[in-house]
C-alpha cells in the first residue's frame, strides 16, 4: 500500500485532542442521580441502579489517564493500494490509527463508483478499510474522509477530516476486433502489407532472375520447370500514421445519468483504436477539436499507449459549454484518420471535408449515445416525467437525430464510411471495406 | 397532501439506508430500556402517577435517543427508570442491580451507535470491544457495590469486602497499559 503523501510521512505525528462525549456526561449524571437518591431516601441499595453507569464513566477516565491519552490521539494515516486503475478495477483505501481506539470512517459516495461498505461508512477497531470499484474512466476524488476517533468505550472522542484520495481511472482495456490492414501504409517498415514491391513475406509475383536479386529468393521448382532462373517478388510491409480526431466540442448526456455520454463513447473508442494500432507498431496521435481531451503528439510503442490513456483519463467531464473548434491545419497524405464525433457541430463536417481534400483516408465513428433521441423511447417513463415538467427534450433530440441522418448519408456519398461505436467490433467491416477499396482496380481519367 | 406523502416516502427511503448493525444496536437499546422500566415498575407501567409519568418519559425519550444516539435525550431516558425504582421499591439489591445493568446496556448501545452515521456499518470487532468494556464496567460496579455497602453501614458478610477489593485490583491491572520497555539508544 502506498502512503498518502511524502510530506505527510516526514512530519512528526500530530495529536488530536479528545473531548468528553455526550455518552460520558450521560453516564456520569445518571449514575450520580442514583447515588443522590440513595442518600436522600436513605436506602443504600439504590446505589446498585447507578453503579454500572458510574463504573463505566470511571473506567473511561482512569483508562484515559493510565494510557496518557490526555495529550490526544495520534492522527490516523491514509494508505491506498494504488492511485491508477483500469475502468472496472478495484482499489483499497485504509485509514489506520496506531492506538487502541474505535475508528469511524465516513466518505461521501462518489458518482459512478461502488464502495464496500456500500454507503461508505464503517466503525471498526483501529483500522478501517474502504474498497472502491471504479465503473467509469476519469478522475475520482474519494473523500474527504471524515474520521471519528474514540477510546474503546466511546467516552472521549475527536474527529478530523483527511484530504480526499485522488484516483486516475484509465479507459477500459478492450482490444479492437479489427484487421491490422490499413488502406495505404506510408512508413518504412512495419506490419501492414503495402502495394509496393520489395523486402517482405507476402508473395507478389514470380519473375525472371535479375542481377542484384537475393539467392534465397530463387524459386527452384519454377526454375527447374522452365530452365531459367526465377525469383519470388514480395510486397513490402510498412507501418502507417494513424490520427484520431476527437470531437469534444460538447458533451451529450443521456436522460439516464448511468448511460454513457458522448465523451465516454469518444474516450473508449479512442483508447481501443489507439491500443489496436500501437500494438501493430503504427504511429498514433490524437487531435482534439474541442478542449476536453487535448492533443497528443504522434508516437509509437507502449510508452505512447501509456501517455495516451493517461491523457484520456484526465479528460474534463461534465463541461456542457460549447467550445470553439480547434481545426487541424495539415495532415500527411494517406494518413488513416479516425474521426470520433457525434456529428452535431457543423464545423466538424467542414473539418472532415478538409481532411479528405488533404488526401487522408477518413473513417467517421459516430459517438452519439444510442439512447439520445431514440424514437422508440418516446412515451416511456423518462418521457412521461419530462412531459409533466413541460419539457420536450426527447422529442427535440429525436428530430435532431433525424436531421443528422441526412449528414451521415451525405458523408457516405462522398466515400467516407460512418460507423456507430458499439464496442470493439465496430471498426472491422469499415477497415476491411477500405482495404478492399484501396486495392481495387481504378479507371484512369484523362 | 402531496408534500406530506413525498416526505413520508423520503422517510421510508432513508430508513432503508439504515444499516443492520445500527438497527440492531438501537433496537437493543430500546428493549433494554423498556425492560429496565418494566422491572422498576414491577410490571405495571401505568398503575399510578409516578410509574405512568416515568414510563411515558422512557417511551418518548428512549425513542428520541434511539433516533439520534448522539442526542441529549438519553439522560432523561436513563433517569426515568431510576426515579421509578426509587419511588416504587421493586425489590432487593439483586433486582436493582439488574435494572442498573439494563440501563448500562442501553447506554453502551447508544454510545457505540453514535460513532458513525445511521448508514454506517459497525464491525464485529468494534461491537465486541464495546461489549467487553461494558462487561468490565459491570464487574467494577459489582466490586464497588461490595465495598460501598459495608461502608454505608449495611449488614454484609465480611468476605464481600475481600471480593470487592480483589475485583478492584483486577480491574486496575487490566487498565494499566503494558507496553514493551524502550530500548536504550546505541
From TrEMBL, chain A:
Domain DUF58: start-end pairs: 205-363
Region annotation Disordered: where it falls in the sequence: 177-196
InterPro entries named in the record: DUF58
Coiled coil: none
Name listed for the protein in its UniProt record: DUF58 domain-containing protein
Top-rank taxon: Bacteria
UniProtKB/TrEMBL annotation, chain B:
Bilayer-crossing regions: 45-64, 95-118, 130-153, 159-176
This protein's UniProt keywords: Membrane, Transmembrane, Transmembrane helix
Protein name, as recorded: Uncharacterized protein
Organism whose genome encodes this protein: Brachybacterium endophyticum
